[in-house]
Amino acid sequence: MGNKKVLIAYGTRYGSTEEISQEIAKTLGEKSLEPELFNLGKSKSKNWPQLDDFDGVIIGTSLKINAWKKEVKSFLDKNKIDFKNENKKLGVFTCGAYAIGEPTEAKEDIAKRLMKKYGLEADIYNAFGGILDFSEDSKIGKLGQLALKAAALGLSNEKGLEIDKNGCNDFRDWDKIRSFAESFADKL
Fold this sequence. Notes:
It contains five helices and eight strands. By secondary structure, the chain is an alpha/beta fold. It has two domains: 5-130 and 171-187, Rossmann fold, CATH 3.40.50; 133-170, no CATH class. Strand 5, helix 3 (104-118) and strand 6 (124-129) form a beta-alpha-beta unit. Helix 1 (16-30) packs across helix 5 (174-187). The protein starts with a strand and ends with a helix.
């Protein structure tokens, strides 16, 4: 598997998706692949990496009210022809409250969106829970916290999750994230 390059392109709001991308990169590196991280939100689309140099691409996006980051949608649209190349593997993941608990619906939403909006099928895709941060140090503004608290109440009632309404609640499953990366590596 050595010398195969993987681009991990992501859009993040508060850093959780970036941390997941870093863990995926670490896991791919342990599998003798060469991962390259790229935050799509930190540069203009004309400066985004060209896909010719990569054997595989993993795209990650945070979710806010179940919406994907606009730069991720633009990246998919800009490169959809390249993603249809059978020799280039595509992985996609989302991160957010929608995937907390049993994320089957959130996971299947990825496949539906890819096909409907871009005519794409990913080789692998998954949805990971995110962070609900209600602490004083939260990067989320007060209005965002109010909306998130309403969503958290629904999650608590619907899925029986215990949520600290004044603390940081991390619902990322790191074993599941590493397993996703390992499965992607196996496809290469």
